[in-house]
């Protein structure tokens, strides 16, 4: 990886920014030497009903991991995103909605958003939804998705947003795990001109979800859907006639705000639980400093609200800051591959935040679709979701940003709530491919495989040594799993699951996951989930799934499949299995490669040697390492000989 390219902060950018390098160093130093003092000051950036007097009460020791911030304060997240802006910016746009069809768009002011949220909050209360209840949101990227989140927050209900691309089974699993009492969905979603049957999927999922007694359905496409008597209500009918104000629930800082399911290295997805006070402080603060957000600017994060990036940097962070946040229903290549840049021109976007996979896909179509647009409004670019390769970084910088826009490569996770390692545009000289330096209050620690801390330039496993306010608090319903997953690998440290290198300048370079999680187009996927979907097929005896380098997706899904005796490996069956996984989990989990494996390399104790399968998938046969401990070394040769072209 070349480190020769350095993009220094321009004087102009430094001067105009919230923070220049001197200020960054000063604030960072204060944040780690006196976290209590630092966060006591910055905790005031949001509105409290009852101000906190306690700042931090944290232990990372297993058993007994406990994380509390501002824990005697009370607040309401929706009040912070709405009510507090009404006087100063009630008529300012809060959300610019850009539909899938370029002819569809809408501007929603803070006052509109407030009214819509209150009406829905009242409708939910009327349905008996109360503080602490879980509500599932399974929606397309329409303003009602944000309204639904805020309405839950207003009445103290815990939302659990499930990405609209997930299958009925995946949806059901998530609803069951947190025993949601209601689902908010739409008739159909619309992406790239194609319809997504959200209500039909919900109906299918709810066959196995007895906890759900209410379903609110937004009419998005007008498509024909079944409505179940006594359970299903049209959203527009439910909110009709509801009062335009709604008393917000007074929440403790540590009361849960939301659950968001994410893949781990084993078993079913974990319900990552975030609480209210610390999360609001941390997301609003990072949104302001990382994107150097100034009043009135149009800010666009292209994520879906089904992922944490949508929660923190489309909805909560920007709205807490009174920003203009753009919400996009569509996809980067519809109707054409100029769409992103046309939307930037149409809405005068200043700050644009997307994923490396989108950049790589657009790169493939060359510069012309970008260059035929103006992009004059852009001043800052962002990247998130996976490591950005230096080639993609350079292209983003040169072609999209015309060398004018700094790029913030922001490293963080569903679990971290907000950005932890990132450049600040006015402070940090950039190196393509590096997430650069820690945000305020964040203490990264690189450890070797025994947990020994490494100093200076080094490479190892990335841990975080101290808590920050946006950190997840538990795995919903399974605190032991929380402790086990994040705090037991390295004593007293939060383990991220990522590998990382630190260079001589103290810059961090994330090298990717070191566990059995793969990152496909910025989406996290547990290989175990894909494996269990495959073995659920009657013709599959065994399956092992690994990631392999993929030009566009970052990592692709490579599945080794052993069929039950007597089944023939045919092209038809291959296609059937791909479809099967799509149906079981969702399109994002479609295997890119299926290799028929008469046998899998196993140790004598029966453990699949994933290291070897990874190497074969990577086409790296020279580095297989020691295969002598295998029960049957011959299977490796067979897999190498029959590796399909990728
Ligand atoms: C926000 C989000 C988290 C995992 C994380 C890491 C990878 C995210 C990255 C990055 C390198 C970046 N990741 N941002 N790797 N550079 N800027 O993506 O959350 O879906 O939970 O994924 O994504 O591997 O551990 P999530």
Automatic annotation (TrEMBL):
<feature type="binding site">
    <location>
        <begin position="409"/>
        <end position="414"/>
    </location>
    <ligand>
        <name>ATP</name>
    </ligand>
</feature>
<dbReference type="GO" id="GO:0046872">
    <property type="term" value="F:metal ion binding"/>
</dbReference>
<feature type="binding site">
    <location>
        <position position="537"/>
    </location>
    <ligand>
        <name>Mg(2+)</name>
    </ligand>
</feature>
<feature type="binding site">
    <location>
        <position position="513"/>
    </location>
    <ligand>
        <name>ATP</name>
    </ligand>
</feature>
<feature type="binding site">
    <location>
        <begin position="191"/>
        <end position="194"/>
    </location>
    <ligand>
        <name>CoA</name>
    </ligand>
</feature>
<dbReference type="GO" id="GO:0019427">
    <property type="term" value="P:acetyl-CoA biosynthetic process from acetate"/>
</dbReference>
<dbReference type="InterPro" id="IPR011904">
    <property type="entry name" value="Ac_CoA_lig"/>
</dbReference>
<dbReference type="Pfam" id="PF00501">
    <property type="entry name" value="AMP-binding"/>
</dbReference>
<feature type="modified residue" description="N6-acetyllysine">
    <location>
        <position position="607"/>
    </location>
</feature>
<dbReference type="GO" id="GO:0003987">
    <property type="term" value="F:acetate-CoA ligase activity"/>
</dbReference>
<dbReference type="InterPro" id="IPR032387">
    <property type="entry name" value="ACAS_N"/>
</dbReference>
<dbReference type="Pfam" id="PF16177">
    <property type="entry name" value="ACAS_N"/>
</dbReference>
<feature type="binding site">
    <location>
        <position position="333"/>
    </location>
    <ligand>
        <name>CoA</name>
    </ligand>
</feature>
<comment type="similarity">
    <text>Belongs to the ATP-dependent AMP-binding enzyme family.</text>
</comment>
<feature type="domain" description="AMP-binding enzyme C-terminal">
    <location>
        <begin position="529"/>
        <end position="607"/>
    </location>
</feature>
<dbReference type="InterPro" id="IPR000873">
    <property type="entry name" value="AMP-dep_synth/lig_dom"/>
</dbReference>
<keyword id="KW-0460">Magnesium</keyword>
<keyword id="KW-0479">Metal-binding</keyword>
<keyword id="KW-0547">Nucleotide-binding</keyword>
<keyword id="KW-0436">Ligase</keyword>
<keyword id="KW-0067">ATP-binding</keyword>
<dbReference type="InterPro" id="IPR025110">
    <property type="entry name" value="AMP-bd_C"/>
</dbReference>
<keyword id="KW-0007">Acetylation</keyword>
<feature type="binding site">
    <location>
        <position position="498"/>
    </location>
    <ligand>
        <name>ATP</name>
    </ligand>
</feature>
<feature type="binding site">
    <location>
        <position position="535"/>
    </location>
    <ligand>
        <name>Mg(2+)</name>
    </ligand>
</feature>
<feature type="binding site">
    <location>
        <position position="309"/>
    </location>
    <ligand>
        <name>CoA</name>
    </ligand>
</feature>
<feature type="binding site">
    <location>
        <position position="524"/>
    </location>
    <ligand>
        <name>ATP</name>
    </ligand>
</feature>
<feature type="binding site">
    <location>
        <begin position="385"/>
        <end position="387"/>
    </location>
    <ligand>
        <name>ATP</name>
    </ligand>
</feature>
<dbReference type="GO" id="GO:0005829">
    <property type="term" value="C:cytosol"/>
</dbReference>
<dbReference type="GO" id="GO:0016208">
    <property type="term" value="F:AMP binding"/>
</dbReference>
<dbReference type="InterPro" id="IPR020845">
    <property type="entry name" value="AMP-binding_CS"/>
</dbReference>
<feature type="binding site">
    <location>
        <position position="540"/>
    </location>
    <ligand>
        <name>Mg(2+)</name>
    </ligand>
</feature>
<dbReference type="InterPro" id="IPR042099">
    <property type="entry name" value="ANL_N_sf"/>
</dbReference>
<comment type="function">
    <text>Catalyzes the conversion of acetate into acetyl-CoA (AcCoA), an essential intermediate at the junction of anabolic and catabolic pathways. AcsA undergoes a two-step reaction. In the first half reaction, AcsA combines acetate with ATP to form acetyl-adenylate (AcAMP) intermediate. In the second half reaction, it can then transfer the acetyl group from AcAMP to the sulfhydryl group of CoA, forming the product AcCoA.</text>
</comment>
<dbReference type="Pfam" id="PF13193">
    <property type="entry name" value="AMP-binding_C"/>
</dbReference>
<dbReference type="InterPro" id="IPR045851">
    <property type="entry name" value="AMP-bd_C_sf"/>
</dbReference>
<feature type="binding site">
    <location>
        <position position="521"/>
    </location>
    <ligand>
        <name>CoA</name>
    </ligand>
</feature>
<feature type="domain" description="Acetyl-coenzyme A synthetase N-terminal">
    <location>
        <begin position="24"/>
        <end position="81"/>
    </location>
</feature>
<feature type="domain" description="AMP-dependent synthetase/ligase">
    <location>
        <begin position="83"/>
        <end position="467"/>
    </location>
</feature>
<protein>
    <recommendedName>
        <fullName>Acetyl-coenzyme A synthetase</fullName>
        <ecNumber>6.2.1.1</ecNumber>
    </recommendedName>
</protein>
<feature type="binding site">
    <location>
        <position position="582"/>
    </location>
    <ligand>
        <name>CoA</name>
    </ligand>
</feature>
<dbReference type="GO" id="GO:0005524">
    <property type="term" value="F:ATP binding"/>
</dbReference>
């Amino acid at each position: 990886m070349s480190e020769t390219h350095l993009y220094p902060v321009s004087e102009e950018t430094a001067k105009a920014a919230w923070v220049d390098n001197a200020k960054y160093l000063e604030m960072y130093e204060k944040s780690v030497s006196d976290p209590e003092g630092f966060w006591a000051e910055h905790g005031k950036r949001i509105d409290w009903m009852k101000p906190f007097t306690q700042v931090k009460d944290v232990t990372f020791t297993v058993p007994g991991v406990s994380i509390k911030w501002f824990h005697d304060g009370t607040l309401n997240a929706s009040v912070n995103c709405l009510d507090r802006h009404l006087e100063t910016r009630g008529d300012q746009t809060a959300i610019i909605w850009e539909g899938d069809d370029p002819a569809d768009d809408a501007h929603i002011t803070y006052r509109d958003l407030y009214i819509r949220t209150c009406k829905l909050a009242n409708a939910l209360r009327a349905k008996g939804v109360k503080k602490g209840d879980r509500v599932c949101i399974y929606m397309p990227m329409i303003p009602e998705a944000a309204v639904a989140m805020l309405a839950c927050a207003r009445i103290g209900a815990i939302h659990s947003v499930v990405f609209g691309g997930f299958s009925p089974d995946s949806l059901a699993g998530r609803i069951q795990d947190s025993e949601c009492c209601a689902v908010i969905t739409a008739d159909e979603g619309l992406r790239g001109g194609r319809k997504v049957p959200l209500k039909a999927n919900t109906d299918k999922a709810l066959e196995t979800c007895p906890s759900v007694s209410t379903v609110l359905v937004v009419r998005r496409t007008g498509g024909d859907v079944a409505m179940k008597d006594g359970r299903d209500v049209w959203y527009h009918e439910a909110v009709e006639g509801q009062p335009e104000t709604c008393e917000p629930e007074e929440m403790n800082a540590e009361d849960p705000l939301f659950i968001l399911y994410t893949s781990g290295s084993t078993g079913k997805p974990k319900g990552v639980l975030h609480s209210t006070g610390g999360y609001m402080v941390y997301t609003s603060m990072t949104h302001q400093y990382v994107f150097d957000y100034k009043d009135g600017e149009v800010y666009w994060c292209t994520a879906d609200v089904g992922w944490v990036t949508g929660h923190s940097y489309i909805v909560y962070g920007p709205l807490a800051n009174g920003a203009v946040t753009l919400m996009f229903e569509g996809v980067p290549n519809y109707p054409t591959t100029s769409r992103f840049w046309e939307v930037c021109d149409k809405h005068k976007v200043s700050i644009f935040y997307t994923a490396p996979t989108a950049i790589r896909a657009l790169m493939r179509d060359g510069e012309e679709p970008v260059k035929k647009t103006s992009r004059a409004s852009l001043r800052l670019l962002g990247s998130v979701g996976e490591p950005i390769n230096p080639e993609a970084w350079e292209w983003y910088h040169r072609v999209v940003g015309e060398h004018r826009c700094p790029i913030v490569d922001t490293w963080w996770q569903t679990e971290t709530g907000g950005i932890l390692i990132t450049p600040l545009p006015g402070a940090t000289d950039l190196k393509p491919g590096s997430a650069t330096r820690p945000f305020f209050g964040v203490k990264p620690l690189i450890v070797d495989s025994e947990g020994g801390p490494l100093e200076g330039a080094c490479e190892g496993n990335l841990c975080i040594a101290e808590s920050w306010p946006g950190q997840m608090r538990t795995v919903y319903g399974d605190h032991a799993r929380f402790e086990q997953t994040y705090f037991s690998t390295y004593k007293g440290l939060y383990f991220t699951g990522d590998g990382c290198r630190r260079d001589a300048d103290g810059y961090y370079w994330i090298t990717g996951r070191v566990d059995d999680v793969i990152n496909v187009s910025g989406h996290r996927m547990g290989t175990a989930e894909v494996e269990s979907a495959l073995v659920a097929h009657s013709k599959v005896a065994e399956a092992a799934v690994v990631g392999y380098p993929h030009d566009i997706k970052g990592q692709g899904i490579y599945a080794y499949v052993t069929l039950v005796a007597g089944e023939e490996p045919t092209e038809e069956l291959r296609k059937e299995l791909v479809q099967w996984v799509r149906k079981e989990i969702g399109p994002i989990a479609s295997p890119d490669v299926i290799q028929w494996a008469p046998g899998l390399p196993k140790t004598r104790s029966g453990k699949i040697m994933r290291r070897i399968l990874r190497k074969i998938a990577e086409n790296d046969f020279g580095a297989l390492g020691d295969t002598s401990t295998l029960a049957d070394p011959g299977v490796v040769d067979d897999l190498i000989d029959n590796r399909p072209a990728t």
